[in-house]
Design a protein that fits this description.
The complex is a heterodimer.
Chain A (H helix, E strand, L loop, with lengths): L3 H6 L4 E13 L4 E13 L3 E5 L6 H8 L7 E6 L2 E2 L5 H11 E4 L11 H11 L5 H11 L15 H14 L4 E5 L7 H18 L2 E5 L3 H5 L3 E6 L2 E9 L1
Parallel strand pairs in A: 3-8, 3-9, 6-7, 7-8
Antiparallel strand pairs in A: 1-2, 1-4, 4-5, 9-10
Chain B lengths: L2 H11 L3 H36 L6 E6 L6 H9 L3 E14 L2 E10 L9 E4 L6 E4 L7 E4 L1 H6 L7 E4 L2 E11 L13 E5 L3 H4 L8 E8 L2 H11 L7 E5 L4 H39 L1 H9 L4 H42 L9 H26 L4 H6 L9 H20 L2 H29 L8 H11 L1 H35 L7 E6 L4 H10 L8 E11 L2 E2 H4 L7 H4 L2 E5 L8 E5 L10 E4 H7 L6 E6 L2 E12 L11 E3 L11 E6 L8 H8 L4 E4 L1 H39 L1 H13 L4 H39 L7 H4 L1 H23 L2 H8 L1
Parallel strand pairs in B: 3-9, 6-8, 15-20, 17-19
Antiparallel strand pairs in B: 1-10, 1-11, 2-3, 2-7, 2-10, 4-5, 4-8, 6-9, 7-8, 12-21, 12-22, 13-14, 13-15, 13-18, 13-21, 16-19, 17-20, 18-19
The chains are: A alpha/beta, B alpha+beta.
Chain lengths: 239, 828
């Protein structure tokens, strides 16, 4: 496992750098520019909220930072490796060990039980005894008695708890969350926020989150505003 | 609900994925069933036409020892649009080159032959020609053996009675040179108009008049209705189906086509069922929304009914549009394979099952779940957990299965066929339930991991619900396809077994009792062994239980055996291929009793214990039936309706002997020596008939292979439809696995393994179920012995595994091409 002490040894170490990220989509006759020259740095252990209106390019930026997609131009460096230049399989291997995800629509596999959903990344990363670790995490998110339930038998909040357990399963160094409370009511959203922040603290994970939920953004150490594909540097605030 | 609204909603619907799947499945289903139905009915017509050349027409009317057939009868046939031809057959002496020879003359009119071709050689070493006519007036064509016997050459003159005719060709083959015991002497063909001038035919001459008819099946049937009351006792109406030689093979081929069609109906309905059920389940949210918006349940029901109706129409038309060009193409192909004209005919009644299949399976599968939704209160619908209403899915499926088997029954009208297929399916579901249990028990303990095998096995366990459902459908598809493969294999093996290499191709008839030894040694010296020699006594069946046979058997049941003399025999051992179905074969001491052929016995309505009376010349004999046995008429060996024990009533009556043997083509010339040495023994050459039957069997075989190929293609389509039913879930899963860090190669390998394993299971199940169905089908539908065909049954699971692995790989394609980010968004 990762040596936790190393994570805290250099608190100001930069873990993720994006330089001049540009993403264009070819629409046949036109090209649509979704992101234009985005440059940023994220330090280890930091929590960062990316805010902006719908369609401003937040989620695209998140996907590029997480290595789920490759930019048209520019470069993403995670822990010193230029992931935007890695092959798809190398990026996958990197994601398996270093990166966790939480999605707005949970993205649980409907055929699998809660336990099996959490076990999935552990199995892919070849952890020993994935079931034990998954059970532990589900207990941590308060679903110890729902292990054998499938997503259909769980409420939205419960599904997102499973997704959070899954995201932290492999002890990622960085966690990407895309509108984690977007599909939930206020009360449940609040609970999910608490859980996410608590786990983040406990595990010393770097958190990068897209949200237009002001209260959630406010709980992050830093917020980046994105507008029409440009990072609004003037509005970058550190908490 | 107006039609316009329905159509509007179809256009809107088309954008939905589920609807595309349903409509595609419908189009494919209709197209497959239509193609097979059209092709099978065409094939049937073509085969019968092809086989009709055995009669040189579609029907034959014979008048044995009778008056010429009235010209008005032919006139009537022509007025009904039928083609007619006339033949006169008789035996007479022919002289040529100062020698005489008894010949069997066939005099034919201009139109002969109506079906098939005459093969002649116009000069001694000229080319073989296929002609659709007989010799012209003043000419004769003679059998090559006769040419050698009389040392004739083309261009020589021969005399038949008072008429001198010119030999203008060697008669190599006549289409209707069938198995005719009276055609004992070498054949000579002449023109029918020359017959009166020969002066050979006089009062009391033994002459056979034959009329041939050809044309539309319905016109022939109508003509027969007209003709039947006019027929006398000496008349015999024959169709190719009455001829023993081929009818069994043709009947089995027809049944095979029927089975193929039924299986197509089943496959098609599976495809539609899978797709439309999926659609129905997907419509739950829409129905829920409509209910919350205040639309009454019955409106929703009517709306969906209208929609299904429109789809039925659209799908049916689309299917027909696909089917017709494919059918035209197949037609073309068939014409080339069979080397004969195959007219493009669309048999509209044959299409009915195609349309019924589509609509019935659509309604049977899509409507019940939707209809049930309208009974659920709006609030419950909104909150309903999917799966909650699945409790009654089995009822829906049961209703649909009944509907579909009803369709097959309507189509095939064969209770046994339907029961066998249902039996196979029940067996399948039984094994499937067991397999499900085994899977749950044994795979539960498998640990997942970054290894493709473990991921695949875990996948099988975790997806067990959908996997078992898929395996069920695959197994059913494979069962249907393998049933057809198995039936085809045994059918072909059966045909091959009937006419193996060295099937006897020559008969020696009319061997005098004191010549038997000499004949045997003649062929023994030439290395040819004769089959069993049987004595033959010609006699008529005249009484049943002491009453005249004409009173006992009503005239309506035209029993051919009563119209002519039967060949009676006595034998010690029953021929190997005969089988006693009632009573017992004689024991060694028994000298009374008679064994009767099974079909004749049932036509006569007689059983073991009934007493049959025969007239042989001036003698009469009466014997009780001791056994009833089946006879292989296709075996090309002497076969007998009536077999007496040796030393019984028949011995002492004037008898001649008959036998058959195989003569290789290279030894044909020995026949000349034989006929010179034994002028009284009649020789019947059936080598060309056997060749012709083998040719027809080859044609039927090719046709059967074509149907099989179609069915296999349809099976693939069904399997693809089933895989596409879970496409979205699978793709979402693939995308997520990639997001969570699964390598592409791992994803590909584990998916292919998982699908491959499911395919293997399905294949094994399908083959087992098919064997069950075939076992049930064997005697009732196809007769003959069914063997297990491991060489066919073994590869099927493997092929199924490979095909499914490839399908699994195929459905993964978009997951691998697009970034996981894009995919997750697209699937949201």
């Amino acid at each position: 496992m990762t040596d936790l002490s190393s994570r805290y040894s250099q608190p100001s170490e930069v873990i993720l750098t994006a330089s001049n990220l540009t993403q264009r989509v070819d629409l046949g006759r036109d090209t649509l520019t979704i992101l234009q020259g985005v440059t940023l740095e994220i330090k280890r252990g930091e929590s960062v909220a990316i805010v902006g209106r719908s369609g401003s390019g937040k989620t695209t930026l998140l996907g590029l930072l997480a290595g789920l997609d490759t930019p048209t131009e520019g470069e993403v460096v995670l822990e010193g490796r230029a992931i935007s230049r890695l092959s798809e399989d190398d990026r996958a291997a990197m994601r398996a060990r270093r990166v966790g995800f939480v999605f707005q629509s949970f993205q649980l596999l409907p055929a699998l039980t809660a336990l099996e959903n959490v076990m999935l990344p552990l199995e892919l990363a070849d952890f020993d005894d994935p079931a034990a670790r998954a059970r532990e995490l589900l207990e941590r998110v308060g679903l110890g008695d729902r292990l054998t339930h499938t997503p259909r038998q769980l409420s939205g909040g419960e599904q997102q708890r499973v997704a959070i357990a899954r995201a932290f399963a492999c002890e990622p160094v960085i966690l990407f969350a895309d509108e984690p409370t977007g599909n939930l009511d206020n009360q449940t959203g609040q609970e999910i926020q608490d859980l996410l922040m608590a786990l983040n603290r406990e595990q010393g994970t770097t958190l990068v989150m897209v949200s237009h939920d002001e209260t959630l953004a406010a709980r992050c150490q830093r917020r980046l505003t994105i507008e029409a594909g440009h990072l609004d540097t003037g509005q970058e605030v550190s908490a | 609900m107006s039609v316009r609204k329905s159509i509007g909603s179809v256009a809107r619907d088309w954008r939905q994925r589920d609807v595309k799947v349903v409509l595609s499945a419908l189009v494919i289903a209709v197209a497959t069933v239509a193609i097979i139905a059209l092709f099978a009915s065409q094939l049937q017509r073509t085969l019968i036409t092809s086989a009709s050349s055995f009669l040189a027409g579609d029907r034959q009317l014979e008048a044995e020892h009778g008056e010429p057939i009235p010209a008005e009868w032919r006139q009537e046939a022509r007025s009904r649009g039928l083609g007619t031809a006339r033949m006169v057959e008789f035996s007479t002496m022919l002289s040529g080159g100062n020698r005489f020879q008894l010949v069997s003359i066939k005099a034919v009119s201009d139109a002969y032959p109506l079906r098939g071709q005459v093969e002649v050689q116009k000069t001694a070493d000229g080319e073989r020609q296929q002609l659709e006519s007989g010799p012209g007036p003043g000419e004769v064509w003679v059998n090559p053996r006769l040419m050698r016997l009389l040392e004739l050459e083309v261009g020589d003159s021969v005399e038949v009675g008072n008429l001198t005719l010119t030999v203008s060709g060697l008669l190599l083959r006549e289409p209707d040179g069938g198995f005719n015991m009276s055609a004992l002497a070498p054949r000579v063909m002449m023109h029918a108009d020359d017959v009166p001038a020969t002066g050979v035919i006089q009062e009391g001459s033994r002459v056979e008049y034959v009329n041939l008819f050809a044309g539309d099946e319905s016109a022939l049937e109508g003509y027969y209705q007209w003709l039947q009351p006019r027929l006398g006792p000496s008349h015999e109406w024959e169709s190719i189906r009455d001829g023993a030689t081929l009818s069994d093979s043709l009947e089995r081929a027809e049944r095979f086509l029927l089975l193929g069609g039924s299986i197509a109906v089943l496959l098609a309905s599976v495809a539609v069922a899978v797709a439309s059920r999926q659609y129905a389940v997907g419509q739950r949210d829409t129905v829920a929304l409509l209910k919350t918006l205040g639309l009454p349940g019955r409106h929703i029901g009517r709306m969906y009914l209208g929609r299904l109706l429109v789809w039925g129409i659209v799908g049916t038309l689309g299917g027909l549009l696909v089917a017709l060009p494919v059918y035209a193409f197949l037609n073309n192909l068939m014409a080339r394979v069979l080397e004969q004209d195959v007219p493009f005919t669309v048999d509209v009644p044959a299409l009915a099952p195609a349309l019924a299949t589509a609509v019935v399976s659509l309604f049977a599968f899509a409507y019940p779940p939707i209809r049930r939704l309208r009974h659920v209160p709006a609030m419950r619908v909104l909150r309903s957990q999917p799966g909650e209403s699945d409790g009654r899915a089995w009822v829906d499926i049961a209703i649909a299965v009944v509907a579909i088997f009803g369709l097959v029954w309507l189509y095939a009208r064969e209770v046994m066929l339907v029961l066998s297929l249902i039996g196979g399916l029940v067996a399948l579901l039984g094994i499937l339930a067991l397999l499900g249990w085994v899977m749950v028990m044994s795979l539960r303990r498998v640990k997942g991991g970054g290894n493709a095998w473990r991921l695949a096995l875990v996948g099988l366990y975790r997806h067990r619900r959908s996997t078992l459902a898929q395996i069920a459908v695959f197994a059913m598809t494979l069962m249907l396809a393998s049933t057809l493969i198995l039936v085809r294999s045994s059918l072909l093996a059966d045909w091959q077994a009937q006419l193996p290499e060295q099937t006897p191709n020559h008969f020696l008839i009319n061997i005098a009792p004191d010549a038997v030894d000499e004949v045997e040694s003649f062929w023994g010296e030439r290395g040819q062994e004769l089959d069993t020699l049987y004595p033959m006594v010609r006699g008529r069946l005249t009484e049943i239980n002491g009453e005249p046979v004409r009173q006992v058997v009503s005239k309506d049941d035209s029993v051919n055996a009563l119209n002519r003399e039967l060949n009676l025999t006595w034998m010690d051992e029953m021929p190997e291929d005969n089988r006693v179905v009632e009573g017992a074969w004689r024991n060694d001491q028994q000298t009374d009793g008679v064994s009767v052929e099974a079909e004749l016995a049932s036509e006569l309505g007689v059983e073991v214990g009934d007493v049959l009376g025969f007239t042989v010349g001036s003698e009469t004999i009466a014997e009780p039936i001791t056994s009833i046995r089946t006879v292989q008429w296709e075996s090309m060996k002497p076969n007998f309706y009536m077999a007496f024990p040796p030393g019984g009533a028949l011995e002492g009556l004037p008898a001649t002997w008959i036998t058959s043997f195989y003569l290789p083509p290279s030894q044909k010339s020995a026949l000349n020596d034989f006929t010179r040495q034994f002028p009284t023994v009649s020789l019947l050459e059936v080598d060309h008939i056997i060749e012709r039957i083998q040719q027809i069997v080859r044609q039927v075989t090719q046709a059967i292979e074509a149907i099989l190929a179609l069915i296999l293609a349809a099976s693939l389509v069904v399997m693809a439809a089933v895989v596409s039913a879970t496409l979205q879930d699978r793709q979402r899963e693939g995308a997520l696995l990639r997001t969570l860090g699964g390598r592409q190669s791992l994803l590909v390998r584990s998916t292919m393994l998982e699908f491959g394993l499911a395919g293997l299971f399905a294949g094994i199940l399908g083959v087992m179920a098919a064997e069950t169905a075939v076992w049930a089908l064997q005697y009732r539908m196809f007769g003959g012995d069914f063997r297990w065909h491991w060489q066919v049954a073994l590869p099927i699971p493997l092929i199924s595994a490979v095909v499914l692995a490839i399908l699994g790989r195929w459905q993964l394609r978009p997951v691998l091409q697009v970034s996981p980010m894009l995919l997750l968004r697209r699937l949201e």
